[in-house]
Amino acid sequence: MTTRTHQLSNGFRIVTENMPGLASASIGIWVGAGARHEMADQNGIAHFLEHMAFKGTQRRSALEIAEAIEDVGGYINAYTSREVTAYYARVLQNDVPLALDVLADILLNPVFDPSEIETERGVILQEIGQALDTPDDVIFDWLQEQAYPEQPLGRTILGPSERVSAFGREDLSRFINQHYGPHQIILSAAGAVDHDAIVRLAEELFGDLAPRPQLVADVARFAGGETRQVKALEQAHFALAFESPGYRDPDIYTAQIYASALGGGMSSRLFQEIRESRGLCYTIFAQAGAYADTGMTTIYAGTAADQIADLAHITVDEMKRAASDMSEAEVERARVQMKAGLLMGLESPSNRAERLARLVQIWDRVPPLEETVAMIDAVTVADVQAFAEHIAGAAPMAMALYGPIDHAPSRDALQEHRAA
């Protein structure tokens, strides 16, 4: 498999990887503009714009966009995160030029028809309502807000209903003009792809895109805090967050190994102690996510109202114990899980295209896979224990609780338990 990169004269970047033996390809456009790039009065507009991408261009109606891809058996979709908006398609090899043409069309030529804006506004408001009705989704938005209060990184991706209800054509066009310049865009493709052919097509489609000033997102400041939302639910939902390394920090691998050993699978400490040994929950996990300049190690569980206090205290106990007796076997198991997950994911052209885009966005290059594996293997037990000690002790903590939580300890009480 061969990874190749190219940059057009206007700064537009292209990365491809040919995967021999495949008959299909994944191709997408990754734009470095997500929820954290919005001003306060724009919150939710990156996601709104993603929805509007499929609602018609100067060349194609909404139906024609869908038919162009589905008539050749392909698939097209998009997503918005806090740092990226992605538009992507999966097609057979001969249809790669068509897919790239459609993606370029929805990115460069949207019409933002007022009637379509109103229709999609209703869809997004329904999506917001559905998220609010899904406790194990909305609790992470509240946790994020407590971790990064009054900052773009702490706001929701969907945005508040009152903002979404007010967006118009001018707002959408303004966000594009601010953030959709060639330096912010990466074209990534993997599978049955021809790099030179894609470069030629990209030059035709994106070569005239004018550079724009690059707006830098505010530096994140993890603060920590607590939110408690009482509601008559079947379960009490419990989530903690601690600041951890960003994705440019080599210590990100230490954080990920720690999270895997603590709560990354059925053999992890939290799963074994809280679910298997004590039967206090059905779902419990830990994970380490990362952004450009910060990250979050997160723990989540759902339990019965009368068991929430026990669950919270035992979770802290397990965090403290990990700082003192994390074993080589646990660290090695986490290393193997990370490497296996990475390698298994690379068998999918869609996952590979996304990884390529992400690496170019982070490093402006594609580090060899061996380099990543070496950094995972370099993490020692002492590294993980030191990180665990920081998380269990001095690290600021954010907490979110939702449901029947009258018996849940306060954040201050858990802080005291951490210090005991």
List the helices and strands and how they pair.
Elements: E1 2-7, E2 13-18, E3 24-31, H1 45-52, H2 62-70, E4 75-80, E5 85-92, H3 96-108, H4 114-132, H5 135-147, H6 161-164, H7 169-179, E6 185-191, H8 195-206, E7 226-230, E8 236-244, H9 252-263, H10 269-277, E9 284-290, E10 295-303, H11 308-325, H12 328-345, H13 349-363, H14 369-377, H15 381-392, E11 397-403, H16 411-419
Parallel strand pairs: 2-6, 7-11
Antiparallel strand pairs: 1-2, 3-5, 3-6, 4-5, 8-10, 8-11, 9-10
Helix pairs in contact: 1-7, 3-8, 9-12, 9-15, 10-11, 11-15
Describe the protein in words.
The protein contains 16 helices and 11 strands. The protein has 420 residues and is an alpha+beta fold. The model has no long low-confidence stretch (mean pLDDT 96). The chain has a 6-stranded mixed sheet with strand order 1-2-6-3-5-4, with helices on both faces. Strands 7-11-8-10-9 form a 5-stranded mixed sheet, with helices on both faces. The protein is globular, with a radius of gyration of 23 Å. Strand 9 (284-290) and strand 10 form a beta hairpin. The longest helix is centred in the N-terminal third of the chain and has 19 residues, at 114-132.
Low-confidence stretches: none
Average pLDDT for all residues: 96
N-to-C terminal Cα separation, in Å?
A: 53 Å
Biggest sheet statistics = 6 strands, mixed
The count of strands amounts to 11
Radius of gyration, in angstroms, nearest whole number: 23 Å
Widest sheet: strand ordering: 1-2-6-3-5-4
Tally of contiguous helical segments: 16
